[in-house]
Design a protein that fits this description.
- This protein is α/β, with parallel strands linked by helices and 237 residues long.
- It contains 10 helices and 10 strands.
- The strands form 2 sheets. It has a 6-stranded mixed β-sheet with strand order 6-7-8-3-9-10, with helices on both faces. A 4-stranded antiparallel β-sheet has the order 2-1-4-5, with helices on one face.
- It is globular, with a radius of gyration of 18 Å.
Length: 237
C-alpha cells in the first residue's frame, strides 16, 4: 500500500501541494483528477523523488520513500509513466523496453516479460526495430507504458496517459490500464479525462489548487454534481 501523508511541495514561492493525504490500496486503480496546475503531476513526481517534498511523508509497504533516491524507489517496485511519454526517440522499440528492465538481471525473465508486453501491445511487436521517434503519438504512449511494465512494478503510476490521443487510441489505453490492473498491478492514475478515469477507478481524489477537495469511490465521484459540473462539463440539476 502507498500512503501519502500531509505532503507539501514548494516551487520557489509557489505552494504546489498543500498537505495532501491519500492512500492507494494494493490491487486497486486509484485516480487523481483536477484542472491544469492543480498539482497532480507534482504529487506523482514527489512520490518517486523527482521533486523534493518540503513537508509530509510518502510510505510504501512500510518503507519511507521521502528523501530516498529515485533509482532506489524503482527497485522497490514502483514505476512512473511520465507525462509527455519521454521515450528514447533515437533508440528502437526493443532498446527502449530493455532499458525499462535496467534494474533486473535475469535475461530469461526479461525476454519472457517482453513477450507478455507484446501480447498487450501487438503493434509494438510489429515495430520492434523502429526508432521510438518514428512512432505515432499513440504508439509512443504504448511504448512508455510497456517500458514501465518491463520493470515488473507492483505499482505503476501514469501521468496523463490519454493526453493528445485520438478518442479510439485513448479508449485502447484505458482498456490496457484495466488489463494491467487485472493482472495484479496496482495503478495510480493522473488524468484530465475525468470521466474515463473515474469509470475505471476503484477510488478517486479531486485535487484543487494543491489541496484534496473531494474523495470517494470512482462511481460516486462520477455521479457527484460538483464533479460533473467542474470536470465533466455538465450542469447541476
Amino acid at each position: 500500500m502507498l500512503e501519502i501523508n500531509e505532503l507539501s511541495v514548494h516551487y520557489g514561492g509557489i505552494h504546489a501541494l498543500q498537505g495532501i493525504t491519500m492512500k492507494v490500496e494494493e490491487g486497486r486503480i486509484v485516480t487523481l483528477i483536477g484542472a491544469n496546475g492543480a498539482g497532480k503531476s507534482t504529487a506523482l513526481r514527489a512520490t518517486v523523488g523527482l521533486v523534493k517534498a518540503t513537508a509530509g511523508t510518502v510510505v510504501w509497504n512500510g518503507t519511507k520513500l521521502t528523501g530516498m533516491p529515485t533509482k532506489d524507489i524503482v527497485t522497490l517496485g514502483i514505476a512512473l509513466v511520465p507525462e509527455g511519454r519521454r521515450i528514447f526517440a533515437n533508440l528502437t522499440v526493443e532498446e527502449n523496453l530493455i532499458l525499462g528492465a535496467y534494474t533486473r538481471t535475469n535475461r530469461q525473465e526479461i525476454r519472457s516479460d517482453m513477450d507478455r508486453v507484446f501480447e498487450l501491445f501487438p503493434r509494438l511487436k510489429e515495430r520492434i526495430r523502429q526508432k521510438g521517434g518514428t512512432l505515432s503519438g499513440g504508439e509512443q504512449q504504448m511504448l512508455a507504458v510497456a517500458r514501465a511494465l518491463m520493470a515488473k512494478p507492483k505499482l505503476i503510476m501514469m501521468d496523463e496517459p490519454s493526453l493528445g490521443l485520438a478518442p479510439m487510441i485513448s479508449k485502447m489505453i484505458f482498456d490496457i490500464i484495466r488489463t494491467i490492473n487485472k493482472s495484479g498491478t496496482t495503478v495510480l492514475l493522473v488524468e484530465q479525462n475525468a470521466k474515463a478515469a473515474l469509470e475505471i477507478a476503484d477510488y478517486g481524489y479531486v485535487l484543487e489548487t494543491g489541496r484534496i477537495a473531494l474523495e470517494g469511490p470512482g462511481k460516486e465521484l462520477l455521479a457527484d454534481d460538483r464533479v460533473r459540473k467542474a470536470y465533466l462539463g455538465e450542469a447541476q440539476g
